[in-house]
Amino acid sequence: MRNIYYNSHATPAVYAILREAAPAGFELQTLDADSDVERKAKLATAEVAIVAATPLRRALIDAAPK
C-alpha cells in the first residue's frame, strides 16, 4: 500500500474526510500529536505529502527520502 501523509494535526473528523477522499491503493498517515518528531517519522515512508495549515519546513523535507 502507498502512503499519503497529512502534515497538519487535525481532528478525527477531518482525518475521516481525507481518508474517504484518498484514492484506492493509498493509506492516509495522520498525526497523533502536533509533533515534528512524529512528522519526520511519517515522512520517512510517505510517497505523497498534503500540506495545509502547517508549513513543510526544510528539516521536514530533508526527512522525506521520497
Main sheet summary = 3 strands, parallel
**Percentage of β-strand residues:** 15-25%
Instruction: Give the terminus-to-terminus CA distance.
Output: 15 Å
Indicate the percent of residues in helices.
25-40%
The general outline is globular
As an assembly, this protein is single chain
Strand order of the largest sheet: 2-1-3
| Unreliable stretches | none
Over the alpha carbons, how many angstroms does the gyration radius reach?
11 Å
The mean pLDDT is: 93
Q: Pairing-aware structural class of the strands and helices? A: alpha/beta
DSSP E strands, number:
3
Listing every helix as H and every strand as E from the N terminus to the C terminus, the arrangement reads EHEHEH
Number of helices: 3
Q: How does this model look, in words?
A:
- There is one protein chain.
- This protein is α/β, with parallel strands linked by helices and 66 residues long.
- Helices cover 35% and strands 18% of the residues.
- The protein is built from three helices and three strands, in the order βαβαβα.
- The chain has helices spanning 12-21, 36-43, 58-62; strands spanning 2-6, 26-29, 48-50.
- A three-stranded parallel beta sheet has the order 2-1-3, covered by helices on one side.
- Helix 1 links the parallel strand 1 (2-6) and strand 2 (26-29).
- The longest helix has 10 residues, at 12-21.
- The radius of gyration is 11 Å and the shape is globular.
